[in-house]
Specification:
CATH class: Alpha Beta
Strand order of the largest sheet: 2-1-3-6-5
Oligomer: single chain
Radius of gyration: 15 Å
CATH architecture: Alpha-Beta Complex
Distance between the termini: 34 Å
Shape: globular
């Protein structure tokens, strides 16, 4: 079976060097995308996506692991091969805290945070022109561009976060 989904972890070489990856199934590819400067993320990501022949790209930060349920759902989405995108539900504790602070739940549900990961079909990624010229990696910025093309899928089950501190570099 061909690889359908590419889980791409982005981070510095030091941060990704400490990362233990989950055991991939035969339809999955797990990639560590090391960068030395945040400005390099766009080019590295564009190259990785262009070289991948599967349908779904998942962008994650070190320490985030998709649950088995989320991975099974992503497989179904990849097999359908439709333009789609979305993110993983937030950790309940985190979502509740943000809701209390903002008192507006729509802000929490409309834009993925970095600890939620984001997934999108490969074709949709390139229809946006790739990652683009952003100075800093931002799920918020890429989700704005995706919203202009297509409504997101219902969020997938939350990611398992294995480290207390999740950051790009």
């Amino acid at each position: 079976m061909n690889k359908l989904i590419n889980y791409i972890y982005i981070g510095s070489e030091k941060r990704l060097g400490q990362l233990k990856l989950f055991k991939e199934e035969n339809f999955e590819k797990v990639t560590k995308l090391n960068f030395s400067n945040e400005r390099d993320i766009g080019d590295l990501l564009d190259t990785e996506v262009a070289d991948f022949e599967g349908n779904i790209i998942v962008i994650l930060l070190p320490g985030c692991v998709p649950s088995k349920d989320a991975r099974a759902t992503l497989k179904k989405i990849a097999l359908i091969n439709q333009l789609s995108w979305g993110w993983f539900e937030g950790n309940k504790k985190f979502t509740d805290m943000i809701s209390q602070i903002k008192k507006i739940s729509t802000i929490v549900t409309k834009t993925p945070n970095t600890d939620q990961g984001i997934y999108l079909s490969r074709e949709l990624y390139f229809s946006l022109g790739g990652f683009g010229e952003l100075n800093k990696f931002s799920f918020k910025e890429i989700s704005k561009r995706l919203y202009s093309r297509l409504d997101p899928q219902k969020p997938l089950p939350p990611l398992i976060i294995k480290s207390k501190k999740v950051q790009v570099s």
